TrEMBL record:
Chain segments annotated as transmembrane: none
Source organism: Drechmeria coniospora
Annotated PANTHER family: 5'-NUCLEOTIDASE-RELATED, ADL392WP
Protein name: 5'-Nucleotidase/apyrase
Any one GO CC term of the record: cytosol
One record GO biological process: nucleotide catabolic process
Domain Putative 5'-nucleotidase C-terminal residue range list: 442-637
Pfam name, any one: NadN_nucleosid_C
């Protein structure tokens, strides 16, 4: 790793102070800590990881009673590849500091095949404990905040009959100060009940759902899932009022009710909270809600304006989610907002100073020693006393170790290791590491245009896979056109073992393949064009996630390129940078904690089609079987026109065969080579 000098920390006293930070933890590393550390640094990683992850009678190569010939990935989350290099410099610590997660969607195991995001939830638990400790030593506040969407996107959360049954207890291991609900906790009633009955209660007054109610089956009433708001005092005396506001989500199941923001602000409790006689030093407005006020989905500005009517100068710190992007927005000279990405790829950092006895009861350190300090006013012409910093951290151990001033050998703490082991065991129980095949290359959703059959996941991988595997055997020789929405695919596929877990990651929704037999080709071949011209389908089944929701796939939405379209200037410190986030926000392009080169990004249409069993001579068939996902049935019928009705629609393979059922068999068929010795990178 080649890093520049640490600005502001050159003096020896601070240098030794930094070194001290590595050893401040009284916890005895103990023997298993040593084993763990060794496992992470040596060539023994795969072997030792297996030892740690498994045990019992099952081996790492699949349970002994497995029917299928499967094996577990050798390198489970403790042994995933390390990031190539670390952050560009230390964080700026203010009087109050925030770490923000959002849209984790079950990715608690980290990204097993991506170096930039290899840390797991255990590594993160350790990081938060170390950072809290650092904050305490420096005499400042550090708050941990999450803004929802805990399911749909990873096997760890989705491979159980009710989403989150095994992932939520892992997520729960973090000592958050504030949490709130996402739309993905509200599609499926059982999940909403789980949040209401179990997790909201466990998190107590830290779980804030200012505009979301769930049916209490005992009382028969819809009740707030968590608290409507929280008034609390930080360790160093800041008196905080917090609201947790979900965007105006409408496709929830009937287990919940979402108050629109415009109605929420008229609620008596909200008005009381604004006019309370209790002093308020800072508002925290957080929620599963896009951070930037220019985003038409966001309702933060509406709530912000209501707060400002009563509190014209009090700082309002905003933490957003749902948009799956890195973003930072300035609301006014005393209010800034951050969005901290998705899928455990990003950890958001915000810090601020400016509190004194005239505007707060803050009793901590004004300028914590041995660290940089926030130096930037929200606006160039700000007259408010508040200065800020913001940073988007890559989710890997190099990041965590660097910012906790630690070392690979000494970093881990028992609480974190326990969580890491719990993830390993859960993955083992759910058989998430079972390998179906060895993917020979990467395919991406938007880094290459649809025409690029070598790289684009839709045309390069999904089309051949669907052609081969989505087949009604009695009609296999009939020409067919398969129509699908690009939003059904939710993540790039990376070279290496294609596992049971990857199937959830790439294709998390269960859309059943339907068809109409013998549609004239001239008519059927027009449908894709009409679909892409027409309104995007709205999923009607509340029990299933909406793949066209901007949250499920930001690369297809209006939010898409904000964080990727700008090219960066010359990169100075790193001689070689790897592709990754290159964010542009209201403050410019210096927010990414680790420097990266830009990943190209192309517009992808809402729908695409695949053709199979067409005549060898290249001629057009007379008729085709027109195959499509169940949720776009109405649109397809509409585009086919008069004479096409629901009665003509049948299940294509069978009535259970869905978008989750073709990639695993395709991987077994097409990628059997090297399956048992498949390199991760
Ligand atoms: Zn999300
Ligand atoms: Zn969302």
């Amino acid at each position: 790793m080649k890093l520049g000098p640490i600005r502001g920390l050159e003096n020896k006293r601070c240098a030794s102070r930094r070194a001290d930070d590595e050893t401040v933890f009284p916890e005895d590393p103990g023997q298993d800590d040593m084993v763990h550390s060794l496992a992470l640094v040596g060539g023994l990683a795969a072997l030792l990881t297996g030892v740690l992850a498994c045990g019992d009678s099952d081996s790492c190569y699949g349970p002994t009673n497995a029917v299928e010939h499967v094996r577990q990935v050798k390198r489970m989350q403790p042994g995933v590849p390390h990031a190539a290099y670390g952050p560009k410099g230390p964080l700026e610590w203010g009087q109050v500091n925030f770490l923000h997660t959002t849209d984790t969607h079950g990715w608690l195991e980290g990204h097993l095949k991506e170096k930039n995001y290899g840390a797991d939830w255990g590594d993160f638990v350790t990081f938060t404990r170390r950072m809290k400790r650092t904050a305490a030593k420096r005499g400042v506040d550090l708050l941990l905040i999450d803004t929802g969407d805990l399911h749909d996107g990873n096997g760890l959360s989705d491979a159980t009959p009710i989403d989150g049954t095994m992932s939520m207890p892992i997520f729960d291991e973090l000592e958050y100060d504030l949490l709130t609900i996402g739309n993905h906790e509200l599609y499926v009633s059982e999940v909403s009940y789980q949040m209401f009955n179990e997790y909201a209660r466990r998190w107590g007054d830290r779980y804030i759902t200012s505009n979301v109610k769930v049916l209490n089956k005992t009382s028969g009433q819809h009740e707030y899932v968590g608290k409507t708001h929280r008034y609390f005092t930080t360790r160093h005396g800041l008196r905080v009022m917090a609201f947790g506001v979900l965007f105006d989500f409408v496709r929830n199941s009937n287990a919940s009710i979402i108050l629109k923001a415009q109605d929420m602000i008229k609620e008596p409790w909200f008005l009381d909270a604004l006019t309370t006689k209790d002093p308020i030093d800072m508002f925290i407005l957080f929620g599963h809600n896009p951070a930037h006020p220019s985003n038409p989905v966001s309702t933060f500005k509406l709530v912000f304006d209501e707060i400002r009517k009563v509190h014209p100068k009090t700082p309002i710190q905003i933490f957003g989610g749902h948009s799956h992007v890195r973003d930072f927005a300035v609301y006014d000279e005393s209010s800034v907002a951050i969005a901290s990405g998705r899928y455990c790829e990003t950890l958001g950092w915000v810090s601020m100073t400016g509190f004194d006895e005239s505007n707060s009861a803050f009793d901590g350190s004004e300028k914590p020693r041995c660290s940089l300090h926030p130096s930037r006013p929200a606006l160039d012409n700000s007259t408010s006393p508040f200065l800020y910093s913001r940073r988007y951290l890559d989710w890997n151990r190099k990041t965590f170790i660097y910012h906790s001033n630690s070392h690979e050998l000494h970093y881990d703490r028992r609480a974190g290791k326990k969580v890491t082991d719990k993830i390993s065991k859960t993955r083992h129980v759910l058989k998430l590491g079972d390998v179906a095949g060895c993917a020979p290359q990467d395919w991406c959703m938007s880094c290459a245009p649809m025409e690029d059959l070598n790289k684009n996941i839709y045309t390069g991988l999904m089309s051949p896979a669907m052609s081969a595997m989505v087949v009604n055997k009695t009609r296999a020789d009939k020409p067919r056109i398969i129509l699908a929405n690009t939003g059904a695919i939710r993540f790039d596929l990376h070279k290496g073992p294609f596992t049971y877990d990857d199937n959830f990651i790439v294709s998390p929704f269960r859309d059943v393949f339907l068809y109409i037999p013998d549609v004239p080709f001239k008519l059927a071949s027009q449908v894709i064009r009409k679909l892409n011209l027409g309104p995007v389908a709205k999923r009607e089944l509340a029990s299933m996630a909406n793949p066209l929701d901007s949250c499920t796939d930001p690369s297809l939405g209006y939010l898409s390129r904000r964080d990727m379209r700008e090219t960066r200037g010359v990169v100075r410190r790193q001689e070689i940078v790897v592709p990754g986030y290159t964010t542009t926000d209201d403050w410019g392009t210096d927010g990414d904690d680790t420097e990266h080169s830009e990943i190209p990004s192309y517009e992808i249409p809402p729908y695409w089609e695949t053709r199979a069993s067409f005549p060898d001579d290249g001629s057009d068939p007379e008729t085709v079987d027109l195959v499509f996902f169940d949720f776009i049935e109405k649109l397809v019928l509409n585009d086919l026109g008069a004479g096409y009705t629901h009665e003509m629609v049948q299940c294509y393979v069978d009535c259970n065969f869905s978008s989750q059922d073709f990639m695993l068999p395709y991987a077994r068929l097409a990628w059997s080579e090297n399956k048992d010795n498949c390199p991760v990178m």
